[in-house]
Every structure is written in structure tokens, then in C-alpha cells.
Design brief:
The complex is a heterodimer of chains A (141) and B (397). With 141 residues, chain A is α/β, with parallel strands linked by helices. Helices cover 45% and strands 16% of the residues of chain A. Chain A has a single domain (2-139), classed as D-Maltodextrin-Binding Protein, domain 2. Chain A has helices spanning 2-23, 40-47, 70-79, 84-96, 109-118; strands at residues 25-30, 61-64, 104-105, 122-127, 135-139. Chain B is built from five helices and 20 strands. The chains are: A alpha/beta (141), B mainly beta (397).
């Protein structure tokens, strides 16, 4: 009984987390970075490979989350106004003309948070629920 | 989209109390996990790509991928073949009701990032060619050296950015249409064997990219050009100028083996708001004669569906001062005027794959057989109209 209750609760909590992942994506940099705020336009340019630096001139390395993940779809539709297939179409053009490659993809919110926290050059997007003091939210789309 | 998110948010608000209630009913003490990265010691920022932390940049040296399209088109024109490029020997119409040749291809692409500065690509395409076969050909192969990420040079077989979708004209998945508008993209020279240099810079909020090119290819030599692209928010503007010596048909020049100087001035603009887009492109080519071509296109995205409409036209060619048409056939060859109205829809029905269907109404100019091929010599289709319907599945991998 105890276990069944726990399982049911966890299942609902997981559903809740999945729902919050869709609703609450935030863009983060390291808490040691000088960047305090970015616009959607500045963030889009970094993630679409149109610029290679933050507005202050520091080299920027964007980090993606896996294709098909809710947080990724949410980020690109809200910030870059591109759904998953528009994003694939965008990168198909870039990749097949040899103009570049998409950002490095990490496995989940925690691995992105950890990598972002470790370098003032990094920028990522994560579920708001996993934000802690190691990273700074620079855009809440 | 926002409606969807609102529903999700509401669902979330209902699940939280329920989950909490169940938890409490089971007499379980909640153990809130602490989210702390104790090892998150920040390094000093770096200002170049070469010395970046490996954790942020490390990617496989080789990336294999590809794209393709499976298409079929049908035309009710029984006196000529409708083709995407006049070099194609057969198309939809006279040679057969249906053809796959216009919209079918498969391509394999490999890129190699040897170092942050040195990379290379190789792309092999199998598509319908002038020799009436699908034999594979090296479409692109080049080596790139980046002095920094915003300034690079390439050597090899290079795609030319004459139009907004020239470099990716064969990647059907990358645009809404079944193929880029024929009346303008007929005039696209896809690639050159040579060298180019690209410099990208930020101008306020905009990103500007300028490219200079020099090279040659079969039937053209001493090719050079400048292309500038400005991206501002969702707007893109492009202007290009290129020249070359082209081997020109002797029916046109009256001389055999004539190398004639050709120049192209091209202008393009697009605006992509996410849920809708609009595009306009124009080209003027000057050789023995002058021709103008353009299109305007727009579409609206409704979930997985993107209906669009396009109007395109190529105006009658006029012989430039100093040249005169040697024969009546030359006048005919110089005059390819036609205009096309297209309606279509793209359906993104599964990941990395789309289905498109497009209807074209093509009206030939008053003294023109347009770009039809295989029109019998005694047949004049001047001023007539015909229809084309095309269906295609595009994929990338």
C-alpha cells in the first residue's frame, strides 16, 4: 500500500515536472559570468550560430538539449519562433552547405546546468525548476 | 501554441495539490532534493574558439548525413516537356504524363572538423542529369580554413549563393515549395570550382555577411562575384553581382565557340515571422541580351501545415546594343518569357520528413515557348497555358 501510494505520487509528480518543463524554460549562464540579461533576439542569434560571442564580446558556446525533448521545443518555439521541423529545416540548410554545425547537445537539464555553471562562456536553457545558485537566469521567455 | 501551454500550466496546477495530498496520506516525509553543483567552479572566460573548454565544444570529428526527395509531376502539356532546368533531356508532358526526374534525388553528405580552424565537406548527389541518368556526382567538395569563426576561406567545389535558396536548392526539406520557383531558379548557376572568402560582422542588432568568389566550371570561366547578406531579426536582405565568360550557343551569337561575358545582378528579401513568411527575389542577366526574372511568395503555418502561394515570371529577352539576333531561331531562344502562379501546401507529417503538393499554372509569353524542352520545330505554343501538378516527399537524415 505504502509503495503503491508512493508510486502513484511519483507518477503524478513526474507528469507535473513534464508539464512544468513545457511551461517554464529559462535561459541561463554561469553565475560567474558578467552577463545579466539577454534579449530573445540576442539569444536566438547565439543558438542559431549567427554570432559567436555574447554582446560583451566574450565567446559564447550554446548548449542544446536532445531533439524531441519538451524543454528544447519550448525554448525554440518561444525564443526563436521555430518549431521542431522549422529548426531542422534551418540546420539542414546550414549543414549541407558546410556553413556550420548545430550547438553541442547534452543529455538533460542537469548536465546543461552543470556545464553552464562551470564556464562563463557557456549558455543553455533549462527547466526553471532546476535553477540554483550556480547559474544565472538571463532570459525568461 | 500559447493555448497549449496554458492548458499544460493549468494541468500542472491541478496535479501539484493532488500529488502533495497523496504523499501526505501515505504518511511519507517529503525529502526535498537539494540542487547544488558543488563542483561548479567557474573558469575564466576565453575569447577564442581554439582554447575553449572541451566540455563545451567537443563534437565528433566526422558528421554523416544526407537528404533526399521522392517526387512525381504531371503536366497536361502534350507538345513539350516541363523541366526544372533546361539541361534536363525529359520532363513532364510530351515524353510522358508523369515524371519523377524533376523532383527526385538522394544525397550523402559528410563533414569533417579536423581542428577548430580546418574543416571539409563532401556531398555526392544522385539525381536526374542531362545524360538521362541518375548517376551519382560530386555536388560539393571543399576545404575550409577559418582565421576566426567570422572570417573564413574555402577551396574546392563551392555552392554559389546567387539566390536565397541557391546553396540549398536541392534540399527540399529546407523550404516550403516543392522546388524553388522555376522562372527564377532556372537561371541559377549552382556551383563553381574555385575559392571564396566570407567575412561576417555585427552591425548593431543586424548580422552582415559578405562573400567574394573566384572560379570556373564547365561552359564558364573567369567567374567572380560578390554577395552580401544582411540579417536583421526575422528579415533577410541579399544582393549579389557576378560575372563570367560563358560558352554561348552559336545559334544565339552567330559565331561558333563564342565566349561571351555574362553578368548577373540579384536581389532578394525575406521575412519569416515563424507563423508566416514572405519572400521576393529578382535577377537581371546581361549577356548578348538582357533578361529579368522575379518571384514573390508567401505562406502561413498552421501547426504541421504550411499553405503557400507564389507568382513568378521571366520577362522577354531583349538584345543589347552591339548585338543583333543572327536568325529568327535566336530570337526564339532569347525569348523564354513565361509566368507561373503556384498554390501548394507543405505538411510536416513526421520527424525529419515532409509531404508537399503543388499546383502550377504556367502561361507562355506571346512570342515564347518558355522553358519547355522537346517542343517539335514546327509547333508554336506562344501565348498558351498549361497546368503542372507535383507531389513530393522530402527527408533529411
Amino acid at each position: 500500500m505504502f509503495r503503491k501510494c508512493l508510486m502513484l505520487s511519483l507518477l503524478l509528480a513526474a507528469t507535473m515536472l513534464a508539464a512544468s518543463a513545457r511551461a517554464e524554460v529559462v535561459v541561463v549562464v554561469s553565475s560567474k559570468s558578467n552577463i545579466t540579461r539577454l534579449t530573445a533576439e540576442q539569444t536566438t542569434k547565439i543558438f542559431l550560430g549567427k554570432v559567436v560571442t555574447f554582446p560583451n564580446g566574450v565567446t559564447a558556446f550554446p548548449l542544446d538539449q536532445p531533439e524531441g525533448s519538451a524543454v528544447r521545443d519550448e525554448f525554440y518555439s518561444k525564443v526563436a519562433r521555430k518549431n521542431a521541423s522549422q529548426l531542422t529545416a534551418y540546420w539542414a540548410k546550414i549543414i549541407f552547405t558546410g556553413d556550420g554545425r548545430p550547438p553541442k547537445t547534452l543529455t538533460d537539464n542537469l548536465s546543461v546546468r552543470k556545464a553552464v555553471a562551470a564556464s562563463p562562456n557557456a549558455i543553455g536553457y533549462i527547466d526553471k525548476s532546476v535553477v540554483n545558485r550556480s547559474v544565472r537566469v538571463v532570459l525568461e521567455p | 501554441m500559447s493555448v497549449f501551454f496554458d492548458i499544460k500550466t493549468e494541468l500542472m496546477h491541478k496535479t501539484i495539490p493532488l500529488a502533495v495530498f497523496l504523499f501526505a496520506a501515505c504518511n511519507f516525509a517529503a525529502q526535498a532534493g537539494t540542487l547544488n553543483d558543488s563542483d561548479a567552479g567557474a573558469e575564466k572566460p576565453v575569447n577564442n574558439h581554439a582554447s575553449a573548454p572541451a566540455a563545451l565544444t567537443e563534437q565528433p570529428m566526422f558528421r554523416f548525413g544526407g537528404f533526399g526527395s521522392l517526387g512525381a509531376s504531371r503536366s497536361n502539356q502534350d507538345q513539350g516537356d516541363y523541366v526544372l532546368y533546361e539541361s534536363l533531356p525529359k520532363g513532364a508532358g510530351r515524353s510522358g504524363n508523369w515524371t519523377a526526374g524533376n523532383n527526385t534525388r538522394v544525397a550523402a553528405h559528410v563533414s569533417a572538423n579536423f581542428t577548430p580552424a580546418v574543416s571539409a565537406i563532401l556531398q555526392v548527389d544522385s539525381e536526374y542529369h542531362s545524360d538521362d541518368s541518375y548517376s551519382p556526382r560530386v555536388e560539393l567538395v571543399n576545404v575550409k580554413y577559418a582565421f576566426d569563426p567570422d572570417f573564413y576561406m574555402r577551396v574546392g567545389r563551392l555552392a554559389l549563393p546567387t539566390f536565397l535558396d541557391s546553396e540549398n536548392h536541392d534540399v527540399g526539406y529546407s523550404y516550403a515549395w516543392v522546388n524553388p520557383p522555376v522562372d527564377l531558379y532556372q537561371l541559377s548557376i549552382h556551383s563553381t570550382d574555385g575559392v571564396d572568402a566570407t567575412y561576417r560582422s555585427e552591425i548593431g542588432e543586424a548580422v552582415n555577411s559578405i562573400k567574394a568568389m573566384y572560379g570556373s566550371r564547365s561552359n564558364a570561366k573567369e567567374m567572380w562575384g560578390f554577395f552580401d547578406k544582411l540579417e536583421y531579426g526575422q528579415a533577410t536582405f541579399q544582393i549579389g553581382y557576378q560575372e563570367r565568360q560563358s560558352l554561348t550557343l552559336n545559334q544565339l551569337s552567330g559565331v561558333s565557340e563564342a565566349w561571351i561575358r555574362n553578368s548577373d545582378l540579384s536581389v532578394g528579401a525575406s521575412y519569416d515571422r515563424g507563423n508566416w513568411f514572405a519572400m521576393y527575389e529578382w535577377l537581371q542577366r546581361r549577356s548578348i541580351f538582357k533578361i529579368n526574372a522575379m518571384y514573390v511568395s508567401g505562406g502561413y503555418r498552421i501547426n504541421e501545415f504550411t499553405p503557400y502561394v507564389t507568382y513568378s515570371r521571366i520577362a522577354p529577352g531583349t538584345f543589347l546594343p552591339g548585338y543583333s539576333a543572327p536568325t529568327a531561331a535566336a530570337v526564339q531562344l532569347a525569348n523564354r518569357s513565361q509566368r507561373t502562379t503556384s498554390l501548394g501546401v507543405r505538411w510536416d507529417f513526421m520527424r525529419n520528413t515532409d509531404f508537399k503538393i503543388q499546383y502550377d499554372r504556367v502561361r507562355l509569353g506571346d512570342n515564347s515557348n518558355g522553358y519547355l524542352v522537346n517542343v517539335p520545330p514546327d509547333v508554336s505554343l506562344h501565348g498558351s497555358s498549361f497546368h503542372v501538378i507535383t507531389a513530393v516527399v522530402d527527408f533529411v537524415f
